[in-house]
Amino acid sequence: MRASGSLGNFIFVSNTPIAATEGSMSFIWAIIAGLIVGVIARIVLPGRQNIPVWLTILLGVVGAVVGNVAAVALGVGDTNGIDWIRHILQVAVAAVLIAAVTPYYSRHSVR
After folding, report:
1. pTM of the model
2. Does 72 have pLDDT greater than 60?
């Protein structure tokens, strides 16, 4: 099992090697997954998060990658059926990132 990342001419997304020529589609899927993970993380967090959508996507992508690495390290990155533990870890990491960044972004943003 491998975490998300690259190795030679292959890109690994969720333990599946993808040829480097398909990298642009992997990038698009990473953005879509980041949006989904980020939105779910924002729903899980109480209160309002005053961060833009691009930051939600970015933190969702980072949360998904770090959560995937943590799931692989714990040995639950690839199971039979739906990888619920991996997805919960991804959302949890994204939620922690959003909770940590929101006060900093709100204080330093120019409106």
Report:
1. 0.72
2. yes
